[in-house]
Amino acid sequence: MMVVSRRTRTWVGLVAVLALSGLVSACGLEEPVAQEPEARPTFAAERSAVQVVSGAVCTGTGAHDAHEGFANGCITCHPCGGALGFAPDATLPSGRPVSGNITTDATGTSCTVACHTPEGQPSTAISWSATGPFPCSQCHSQGLAAPAGGSSHPADNSSVEANRTACQSCHDTSRHVTGTPLVKTPNGPIEIPPGGSVEANGVCEQCHLGDGLVLAGKSPPFLVGWENTTTGDWHGARAGTGSGGTLAAPYARGQGPLPCTVCHDAHVSPNAFIFASQVNGVSIPAGAIGRAGVGAEQLCSACHLGNRHAYCTTCHTSDPQPAGSPCFACHGHEGIRYIPIPNVKPHNMAPKEGSGCAHCHSPGWRPVAESVPPTITVAPAISNVTSSSVTVRWTTNEPSSSYVEYGVGSPGQVAGTPEVVTDHVVELINLSGPTTYVFRVRSADVSRNVVQSALSTFATSDPNAPMPPLLDVEPTFYSYEYIQPVELTWTAVSSPIAGNGVQYRCVVEFGDGSVASDSGWISTPSYNAQLYTLWWPDEYRWRVKARDAVTGVESVWSDYSTFGIWSPEW
After folding, report:
1. List of residues 6+ apart from 483 with CB closer than 8 A
2. Integer Cα distance of 128 and 487 in angstroms
3. What CA–CA distance (Å, rounded) separates 243 from 528?
4. How far apart are the first and last CA of the chain?
5. To which H or E segment does residue 491 belong?
6. Could you tell me if 458 and 431 are in contact, meaning their C-beta atoms sit under 8 angstroms apart?
7. Contact present, 77 and 162 (Cβ < 8 Å)
8. Cβ distance 456 to 381 under 8 Å?
9. Alpha carbons 507 and 561: distance in angstroms, whole number
């Protein structure tokens, strides 16, 4: 009797593959003999038993060799020895039956089986000869683009690597075929039970608390009050009585943080902020909730019973914020925001900003929902650069929050404040030097409309370099001369290395950025620039940097200062 190796049987099967029903019938498996799953030989066990046939050993394809790494035995796909099909009792580790189709034609072999089709997702055909790795979204549709008016955790489809990185920023794939998804938390990967768990909140907090990954070029909304136990969100760390009216079961006042998945879907939603399509058994219509919170009462009423704002009607004759109002102008994970509560009965609460009754008895207090994001009117600028910190400034046309997203290579960290202002100042601390960082600024108005600047860079200084000098203010010069001498001065700095001297370099530029004069490296904290003034008026800007005269380690450039040269006739 000729003994045929497993790999030989595989190739025979690929050449002579039949329809699944024909395979089962031909093998006489209409009444299969029951087998104990643990008795089934594994790929690893058979790998050591490969036998030579006709003096040659068959070489498997990349796809075939990849299947050897799984715990299922060869007979899962080869129930008839050389033939290719499915054993009638074959199951995945999750318990799902292995089912589907195997197709072979002139273009090759492809499989549409349960292994490659996540439960509840459309079937996916995988070519036997295709070269991996594959993007996660080839089989999983959860990371698809959000529908119109909706939102999602987007899968970056710019490349296979970017796609897998985006998905694996939350998911652990060590148990890929078990049927139980794992998510990454600060305490390690955990399973998510039906309905979610508070422990799984850690995967959300890693990004939404302001320090995490950017998905498909987008940074997440920030839960700036989620961990605040005194003024933050009662859904989060702030356990208390609140003013939430009567709560529907299973919720009660004073309980701990809720799982994020009570109100939010994990991947995609037909509403803003990935709100779940069903909350506490109540269906939320698609397109019902916008970013400003218009329509959010449909979600909130799934848990909060009774008349909305019933407490307010002790003074107001009607609901001051009826259905269709922008709920998030007052409510959010930050707690009560922007609308101060007066310190008078029946409110019996301390005002947030001391405005007292003015929040009701003044014109224009009610927020109006709008969808126009702020505009950055003065571009982000870097100043006060040291080896461990910088200051970022920018201006917007309307009050909005101040956040800077930054990092090495990608903007994976966030610093800032939710307070709404037009002149924004954020100090970034605990940086490393000398290091180049990428950064961008982000501001959101009270309707949660967001503006985000383009990515830019800044560099921190070397801790062994002198500090950048502070420039003296220069006056405006009046001259009839074609060459005007201008004495530029700055504060002297010292080297962090005792005994080492310092040199300076001063560069003067025209308004378009081209160089008008360059001192080169000099030893004095002043420079007499000879400037050609063929056209009046001329405006100049200048800056200085320092270096250790022994080691040559340079500081970053100082901030710019400006001056002008004018003809007296102007």
Report:
1. 530, 531, 532, 533
2. 75
3. 69
4. 109
5. none
6. no
7. no
8. no
9. 11
CA atoms within 13 A on the CB side of 411: 26
* pTM across the whole model: 0.66
Residue 229: count of CB within 10 angstroms of its CB:
11
Cα distance between residue 506 and residue 547, in whole Å: 12
Sequence-ordered list of residues with C-beta below 8 angstroms from that of 324, at least 6 positions apart, any chain: 294, 295
Tell me the two tokens of residue 310: 């019933």
Domain architecture of the chain: domains with CATH: 6-132 (no CATH), 376-459 (2.60.40.10), 477-566 (2.60.40.10)
Sheet holding 190-191, edge to edge: 171-172, 182-183, 190-191
8-state DSSP, 327: G
Of residues 127 and 549, the one with the higher pLDDT is 549
CA–centroid distance for 109 within its chain: 38
Are 554 and 510 in contact, with CB atoms under 8 Å apart? no
Q: Hey, what amino acid is at 534?
A: L
- Report, as an integer, the average pLDDT of 177-191: 80
Q: DSSP string spanning 508-521?
A: EEETTS-EEEEEEE
* Segment among 31-40, 373-382, 520-529, 536-545 with least mean pLDDT: 31-40
Other CB atoms within a 10 A radius of the CB of residue 263 amount to: 21
* Distant-in-sequence, close-in-space partners of 28: CB < 8 Å, separation ≥ 6: none
- What are the structure tokens assigned to 205, written together? 């907090």
Under 8 Å between Cβ of 95 and 102? no
CA atoms within 13 A on the CB side of 358: 8
What's the CA gap between 275 and 141, in Å, rounded?
18
Indicate the pairing of strand 561-566 with strand 477-478: parallel
Report pLDDT digits (tens) over 231-261. Answer: 777 788 776 555 556 888 988 877 778 888 8
Which of 91-105, 179-193, 266-280 reaches the highest mean pLDDT?
266-280
Task: List the structure tokens of 501.
Answer: 């001297």
CB under 8 Å to 175, separation ≥6 — which residues? 182
Looking up tokens 């690597």 gives 161
**CA–CA separation, 29 vs 23, rounded Å?**
9
